[in-house]
């Protein structure tokens, strides 16, 4: 059985005070959510301590948005698995397209970060996806396939989540057709040795399209940016039909 995971990626949003306001609005909506559905919030580093205390005893799991491959060292501005582990978090996003685009992340560094996450007992959420130009040039399959191959060298597929996030669908309101996301996710799965890896779709998931996306047979969850910032809208996503 593949685990269903609905994860919010808050990116660089919310202070500690705002994260408390979110929780006050959000947690009460989870009472009727099916037990087997995992709910995750990947929050800024500055909210981890506070969120970890406030989520204790709740069914919401916590995640970070990046991890360095070294345990410590002269890496200004980075964060290590040893540091993250202290907050009792379960997940960490690795290789998000915004990290690849703005912060020089390569398939090699993504691979090193995935290995570090697993070494520290965290489940990495690996993001892959093609740009608009790559899609228009008919390169989607080749791009995704190369990312999967390079990123997953020596990675344990028994402790892994993958998110297919077409870059052109992120934050644009321009969702990938559910059937097309399903097709690409099927291609990703065909490349894996563990066919039970949870593979999410990400890119403008919102309360209007979540039911159709989650009805697709290959799609095991969602990685949500904008719509995870509002408690009511994220609750609606977690409670998809
Ligand atoms: O990048 C994303 C999640 O990691 C998707 O962001 P949006 O849901 O805002 O499109």
TrEMBL record:
UniProt keywords, alphabetically: Cytoplasm, Gluconeogenesis, Glycolysis, Isomerase
Enzyme Commission numbers on file: 5.3.1.1
Protein's UniProt keywords contain Protein biosynthesis: no
Annotated positions binding substrate: 9-11, 171, 204, 225-226
Record localization: Cytoplasm
GO molecular function: triose-phosphate isomerase activity
CDD domains xref list: TIM (cd00311)
The reaction(s) this protein catalyses: D-glyceraldehyde 3-phosphate = dihydroxyacetone phosphate
GO cellular component: cytosol
InterPro entries per UniProt: Aldolase_TIM (IPR013785), TIM_sf (IPR035990), TrioseP_Isoase_bac/euk (IPR022896), Triosephosphate_isomerase (IPR000652), Triosephosphate_isomerase_AS (IPR020861)
Gene Ontology annotations of biological process type: gluconeogenesis; glyceraldehyde-3-phosphate biosynthetic process; glycerol catabolic process; glycolytic process
Location of the active site: 96 (electrophile), 165 (proton acceptor)
Entry's family note: Belongs to the triosephosphate isomerase family.
Biological function: Involved in the gluconeogenesis. Catalyzes stereospecifically the conversion of dihydroxyacetone phosphate (DHAP) to D-glyceraldehyde-3-phosphate (G3P).
Oligomer status and interactors: Homodimer.
Protein name: Triosephosphate isomerase
Species in which this protein is naturally found: Cyanobacterium aponinum (strain PCC 10605)
Lineage: Bacteria, Bacillati, Cyanobacteriota, Cyanophyceae, Oscillatoriophycideae
């Amino acid at each position: 059985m593949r685990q269903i995971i609905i994860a919010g990626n808050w990116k660089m949003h919310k202070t500690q005070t705002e994260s408390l306001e979110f929780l006050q609005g959000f947690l009460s909506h989870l009472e009727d959510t099916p037990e087997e559905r995992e709910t995750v919030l990947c929050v800024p580093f500055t909210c981890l301590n506070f969120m970890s205390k406030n989520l204790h005893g709740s069914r919401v799991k916590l995640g970070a948005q990046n991890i360095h491959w070294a345990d410590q060292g002269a890496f200004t501005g980075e964060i290590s698995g040893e540091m993250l582990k202290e907050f009792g978090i379960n997940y960490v996003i690795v290789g998000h397209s915004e990290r690849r685009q703005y912060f020089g992340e390569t398939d090699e560094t993504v691979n090193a970060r995935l290995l570090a996450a697993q070494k520290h007992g965290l489940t990495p959420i690996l993001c892959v996806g093609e740009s608009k130009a790559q899609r228009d040039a008919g390169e989607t399959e080749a791009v995704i396939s190369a990312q999967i191959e390079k990123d997953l060298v020596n990675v344990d597929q028994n402790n892994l989540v993958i998110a297919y996030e077409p870059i052109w669908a992120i934050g644009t309101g321009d969702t990938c057709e559910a059937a097309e996301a399903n097709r690409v996710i099927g291609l990703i799965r065909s490349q894996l040795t563990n066919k039970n890896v949870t593979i999410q779709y990400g890119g403008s998931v919102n309360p209007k399209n979540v039911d159709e996306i989650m009805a697709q047979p290959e799609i095991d969850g969602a990685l949500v940016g904008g719509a995870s910032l509002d408690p009511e809208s994220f609750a609606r996503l977690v409670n998809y039909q």
